[in-house]
Amino acid sequence: MENSFNQNRVWGWGELALQYFPNISQKSATMQLLKWVRVSRELVDQLEKSGWHPGKKYLTPRQKDYIVRHLGEP
């Protein structure tokens, strides 16, 4: 059976952030994930080329995969 994290679906930014930071509030988790993403210019470039920008609330499966490739699975 496929792990729900690996399903090919749209993810909310806050939803993904809580996967990485499950023990803090969603607001804090989203800010922390954005900080982590911004550390990698390569990751930001990939995300922006795919239509992402800071403040966007949803991620396509490809955008989520870019993040996981750079940060590792939560």
TrEMBL record:
UniProt xrefs under InterPro entries: DUF4248
Organism classification: Bacteria, Pseudomonadati, Bacteroidota, Bacteroidia, Bacteroidales
One Pfam family of this chain: DUF4248
Protein name per UniProt: DUF4248 domain-containing protein
